[in-house]
Amino acid sequence: MPPAPVTPEQVLQRLDWRVIRRLDGLLQGDYRTLFYGPGVDFADLREYQPGDDVRHIDWNVTARTSTPYVRQYLADRELTAWLLLDRSPSMMFGAADRTKQHVLTDLVATLARLLTRGGNRVGAILYENAVEQIIEPRSGRNQVLRIARELLRPPAASGAETDLVGLVRTAASVIRRRSLVFVISDFISEPGWERGLALLAQRHEVVAIRVWDPREVEMPDLGVVVMEDSETGAQLFVDTSDPRFRRRFRAAADAREERLQTGLQHAGLDLFSVSTNEDLVQALIRLLLVRKQRRAVHR
């Protein structure tokens, strides 16, 4: 008899005990630098310094004074966060009990719980080569449960290679107010999403989180196996014990990584990665440290 499906309430209870309580103990509730980006309320002007965010340059004042000036902002007390979620078939890769989709669900539920607990509003766009659902931003525990419920629902497979352009384009048209935007994906996609993400980052604070599995990088020696493209369904017999095959596999993974890094650099974003075999608490602490460092640079 198959096990009963996991409920959103069970997911949230597990994360409350195993992740959020540990984070509270380690961070003592200081999530401000994890979530709060530049505010929208103008505070003051000062001369540009190396490392300042060029998007904050006040070009009118700079033109009048012939000296670059940047705007300073007050940090928002409350914010609206959006979660752009890749639900493509490649996200189902990984161990049976720890796929990339499992990690995405835990990560999203944790982020949403921490945000809404502070009175902030969270919305989500679920995407699988087409927009599955747009969940308008709301606060409260029920909103977290709603997002978790949708993530526990099996996605409708499109049978085509993932193209994240549609997700980014939808976000640009839907998200009006300046927001904190998390893009959570494995970024295994057709090219072309980089420009749209760069434009999105000009208006919003964007955090790119890549979920990955170590077996996507290093192929273990499993003998002769059938490999199947999770998105197109194409199958191929391969000998994983062949060192030449494993070298080609690693070279392809390295090339994919280089394209991703280049794409995000063009969009002006850092890449934050979470592995399927990584402790989620430690992953979120790393995210906190990266964002602290990034904000220090742009002050």
Please explain how this structure is put together.
The protein is of the alpha/beta class and 299 residues long. It has two domains: 8-34 and 76-214 and 250-297, Rossmann fold; 40-74, no CATH class. It is built from nine helices and twelve strands. The strands form four sheets. It has a six-stranded mixed β-sheet, sandwiched between helices. A two-stranded antiparallel sheet has the order 1-2. Strand 8, helix 7 (193-203) and strand 9 (205-212) form a beta-alpha-beta unit. Helix 1 crosses helix 4. The N and C termini lie far apart (58 Å).
Describe the structure concisely.
The chain is of the alpha/beta class and 299 residues long.
Spatial ordering of strands, largest sheet: 7-6-3-8-9-12
Helix run count: 9
- The CATH superfamily of the largest domain is identified as von Willebrand factor, type A domain
Q: State the share of residues found in helices, binned by percent.
A: 40-55%
Radius of gyration from the alpha-carbon trace, in angstroms: 21 Å
Distance between the termini: 58 Å
Tell me, rounded to a whole number, the average pLDDT. 84
Structural class: alpha/beta
Second rung of CATH, namely the architecture of the largest domain: 3-Layer(aba) Sandwich
Content of β-strand: 15-25%
Low-confidence stretches: 38-42
Q: Please name the CATH topology of the largest domain.
A: Rossmann fold
The tally of strands reads 12
Write down the secondary-structure element order.
Answer: HHEHEEEEHEEHHEHEEEHEH
